[in-house]
Specification:
Layout: E1 5-9, H1 16-30, E2 38-42, H2 48-55, E3 60-64, H3 81-84, E4 90-93, H4 96-101, H5 106-118, E5 122-127, H6 131-135, H7 139-150, E6 161-164, H8 179-196, H9 199-204, E7 206-209, H10 218-222, E8 229-232, H11 239-253
Parallel strand pairs: 1-2, 1-8, 2-3, 3-4, 4-5, 5-6, 6-7
Helix pairs in contact: 1-2, 1-11, 7-8
C-alpha cells in the first residue's frame, strides 16, 4: 500500500519571522498524523535552515521549491542539488510556474530530476496540461508525453513521486477541475507508466494532486483511491488548513 504524501509549497511567501512561526504552528497542529502520512513543506530558499530547526524531530520533512540542473558554476542566484543535499530531503521539479513563467522545458526538467537523484534528493515531478491543451482535450496526451520526456534516464522505483498539477487550475481559470477528471488523468498516468516501464513501477509510484487543494475539497480528493496525496499552495500557508489536509489522508490510511 502506498503511503499518503502531503506537500506544502509556500512559494514566494512569508518573512523570516512568519516562516518560523508557521513551521512551529504546523508542528503542533499536525502532531501524530505525521507518523501515518509523509509530510513535506517547501519554504522559500532563505528560510530553509530556519524552518528545518523548527521541524527537527517532528516527522515533517523539508523540500526545496526548485533547483538548478548543474552542480555548480557561474549561475548567479541559482541553487544546486549539491548545495541542497543535507538540508532538504525533497525538491520540486517541473512545477507549473517554473514551466510557464520561467520557460523550463522538458529537457531542463529531466536534467533537474537526474541531478536531484544523483545527489540523494527525492524529486517530486510536477506535470500537467495548460488551459489551451485542456480546451483541445489534450490532457491525457500531454501528461503521457511529459512522463516519457521527463523520466528518461531517471532511477525508477518506490521513491518515484509524480504530482499531477495542471496549470489551468490557477492560471487563467477560476474553478478547479472535477475530481472525476483528476481521477481519469491519474489513471491514465498510471497506465502510461505501466506501458513505458512496468506494472510494478506504476503500482509503486505515488501520484499526488495539486490544484486549488483546500479543506473544502480534500474529502472528495482523498476518497479517490488512486490519488496518494496532495500538493498544496495557498492552503499550506495556514497551519490549520494544512493540518486538515494531512489529517484527512491520515484517517484514510488507518
Amino acid at each position: 500500500m502506498r503511503k499518503p504524501l502531503v506537500v506544502g509549497n509556500w512559494k514566494m511567501n512569508t518573512t523570516r519571522e512568519e516562516a518560523a512561526a508557521l513551521a512551529s504552528s504546523m508542528r503542533s497542529a499536525i502532531g501524530a498524523d505525521a507518523a501515518s502520512v509523509d509530510v513535506v513543506v517547501c519554504p522559500p530558499f532563505p528560510w530553509l535552515t530556519e524552518v528545518s530547526d523548527r521541524l527537527t524531530g517532528s516527522g515533517i520533512a523539508l523540500g526545496a521549491q526548485t533547483m538548478h540542473p548543474e552542480s555548480g558554476g557561474a549561475y548567479t542566484g541559482e541553487v544546486s542539488a549539491k548545495m541542497l543535499k543535507g538540508v532538504c530531503q525533497y525538491v520540486l521539479v517541473g512545477q507549473y510556474e517554473r514551466r510557464i513563467l520561467f520557460s523550463e522545458k522538458d529537457a531542463v526538467v529531466r536534467r533537474k530530476l537526474q541531478s536531484a537523484q544523483h545527489n540523494g534528493l527525492q524529486p517530486i515531478l510536477c506535470l500537467g496540461e495548460d488551459a489551451d491543451q485542456l480546451d483541445e482535450g489534450l490532457g491525457p496526451l500531454v501528461v503521457a508525453e511529459q512522463i516519457e520526456a521527463d523520466l528518461e534516464g531517471a532511477t525508477l522505483g518506490p521513491e518515484l513521486i509524480i504530482a499531477y498539477e495542471p496549470s489551468w487550475t490557477t492560471i487563467g481559470r477560476v474553478a478547479p477541475p472535477p475530481v472525476s477528471y483528476v481521477a481519469e488523468i491519474v489513471d491514465h498516468l498510471r497506465r502510461t507508466l505501466a506501458e513505458l516501464y512496468s506494472s510494478a513501477v506504476a503500482e509503486q509510484t505515488r501520484v499526488i494532486y495539486g490544484g486549488q487543494v483546500n479543506p473544502r475539497n480534500i474529502d472528495e480528493i482523498a476518497a479517490q483511491p488512486e490519488i496518494d496525496g496532495v500538493l498544496a499552495g495557498t492552503a499550506s500557508t495556514s497551519a490549520a488548513n494544512f493540518a486538515t489536509l494531512v489529517g484527512t489522508f491520515a484517517s484514510r490510511s488507518r
